[in-house]
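This week, work through this protein record:
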Amino acid sequence: MTEERLRVVLAEDSVVLRDGMAELLAVRGCEVVAAVATAEDLVAAVAAHRPQVAVVDVRMPPTHTDEGVRAALRIREAHPGVGVLVFSQHLEASWAARLLAGGAAGVGYLLKERVARTSEFVDSLRRVAAGGTALDPEVVGHLMRARRRSAVDALTPREREVLALMAEGRSNRAVAERLSVSERAVEKHVAAVFAKFGLLASPADNRRVLAVLAYLSETG
């Protein structure tokens, strides 16, 4: 049984890379319905051709800053059924987080220098087109670190104090004695820390240890 040809819109400002990618994708059973050089042309091409997936670089003309990923967000909003795969040499964790904010279905973010084979890239394209996710491990790592930084920043001064004392290996009772508060108050602060770090109760994990590790990784 012949595999269905994947309809792709390709956005890449380098004509050499754009033409080369279009040829490689065609060989791998994809139909590049449009290959464009700018973010505005990308948005227009998606609206006109309604592909299954759009491939876009982060930085595109005219400023080569974030036009491509802004266009990806517009496509996600206007055409939620179209998968979006960011394919770039630039890792922008904040933009990756915004792309994933509405859900990870149909989103990919791959780094050009880390894709070893065309077959892997096409497999990722098909996965994103089908509503799946394709994220480079380095992108995931940056997102997790950004999430931990955000969680630490969200702590109140008292919660930071409690967590810092937890990091010293102190029990709730010892923390309460050090801060001259009730043990019950410390328990409430610890629960708030767990909630802000997204640490749910699990028999397999020690939330106290995980919270301390997250805190130390961002403040150490």
Summary: The CA atoms of residues 5 and 83 lie 15 Å apart. The first strand starts at residue 6 and ends at 11. Strands lie at 6-11, 30-36, 53-56, 83-88, 107-111, 133-135. The chain has a mean pLDDT of 88.
